[in-house]
């Protein structure tokens, strides 16, 4: 890592420390910008990544998309270009050197705005690619990120300057090693764009039963093409994708409400409580009741 990049990351670390009032996710005055601080390594966390840029300035993290692992650290950054159910785990952190990271959420419309103001509109619509990638950290992108986070010290400037800096950051991401993957979510007619429509349907109706032919129609492709492109983007089939969403939501409901596991199973779309229990145990390692009891005990001990 070059000395200029190291200096920029030091400044980012100071800002993240200053504005992170508690462990975990911290909101900032910039609506799409979040800071994360962890003083210990964590167990696997199941969540849905929104389209976002994730930069670590201290520590390291593993992210799994299905069975595929992505590890990133201050030497690189991670981009999620679509809503994707993942498992993440902080693997390097301590009280002396906490895990420090920032997350910048963006929309396909913001990416399209970057493309409109560049010479990228005419590029060929490529085949679908994986919806998550890791790329080497670059000086120009970090420079724009630093200007963005400095706005937290000048709140009156945020509404005017933050959109400009975010646009520059997305441009720098696009110009990076794997940036061509990012543009595909915004280019109407590309395979990734059409898979994005299918993902949006599954996410919004995760607890409903659907026919694969209906999803193929939404994606304007054949059933065979849907399976191929969907797996290329998400590393899983549409049914596996929906299952992860259902089980993540079930776990959230069980933790936040005094609800019976069978009732939760029906809420998230399962017709068989026994099937729900089997699939829950397969994903989280414990049956629903035991898992919730364990997680609550861990929370109370922290």
UniProtKB/TrEMBL annotation:
Residues forming coiled coils: none
Q: Which organism is it from?
A: Paenibacillus dendrobii
Domain HTH araC/xylS-type, residue spans: 196-294
Record's PROSITE patterns?
HTH_ARAC_FAMILY_2
* Keywords annotated in UniProt: Transcription, Transcription regulation
Q: InterPro entries, alphabetically?
A: Homeodomain-like_sf, HTH_AraC, Tscrpt_reg_HTH_AraC_N
Q: Does the keyword Mitochondrion apply?
A: no
Q: Mind telling me which Gene3D superfamilies this protein's record contains?
A: Homeodomain-like (1.10.10.60)
One of the record's GO molecular function terms: DNA-binding transcription factor activity
Q: Which Pfam families match?
A: AraC_N, HTH_18
Could you tell me what this protein is called? Answer: Helix-turn-helix domain-containing protein
**Superkingdom as given in the UniProt entry:** Bacteria
């Amino acid at each position: 890592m070059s000395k200029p990049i190291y200096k920029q990351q030091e400044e980012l670390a100071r800002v993240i420390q200053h504005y992170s009032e508690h462990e975990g996710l911290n909101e900032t005055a910039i609506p799409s910008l979040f800071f994360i601080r962890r003083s210990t390594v964590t167990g696997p966390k199941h969540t849905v990544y929104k389209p976002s840029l994730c930069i670590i300035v201290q520590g390291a993290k593993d992210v799994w998309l299905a069975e595929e692992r992505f590890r990133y650290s201050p030497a690189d950054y991670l981009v999620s270009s679509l809503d994707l159910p993942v498992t993440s785990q902080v693997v390097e952190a301590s009280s002396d050197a906490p895990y420090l990271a920032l997350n910048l959420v963006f929309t396909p419309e913001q990416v399209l705005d970057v493309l409109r103001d560049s010479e990228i509109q005419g590029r060929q619509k490529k085949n679908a690619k994986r919806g998550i990638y890791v790329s080497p950290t670059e000086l120009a992108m970090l420079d724009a990120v630093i200007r963005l986070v400095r706005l937290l010290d000048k709140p009156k400037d945020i509404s005017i300057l933050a959109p400009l800096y975010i646009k520059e950051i997305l441009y720098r991401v696009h110009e990076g090693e794997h940036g061509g993957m990012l543009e595909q979510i915004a280019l109407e007619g590309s395979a990734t764009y059409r898979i994005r429509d299918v993902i949006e349907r599954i996410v919004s109706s995760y607890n409903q039963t659907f026919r694969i032919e209906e999803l193929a129609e939404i994606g304007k492709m054949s059933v065979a093409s849907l399976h191929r492109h969907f797996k290329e983007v998400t590393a899983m089939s549409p049914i596996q994708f929906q299952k992860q969403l259902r089980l993540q939501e079930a776990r959230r409901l069980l933790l936040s409400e005094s609800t019976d596991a069978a009732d939760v199973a029906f809420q998230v779309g399962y017709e068989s409580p026994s099937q729900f229990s089997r699939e829950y145990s397969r994903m989280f390692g414990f049956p629903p009741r035991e898992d919730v009891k364990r997680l609550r005990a861990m929370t109370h001990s922290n």
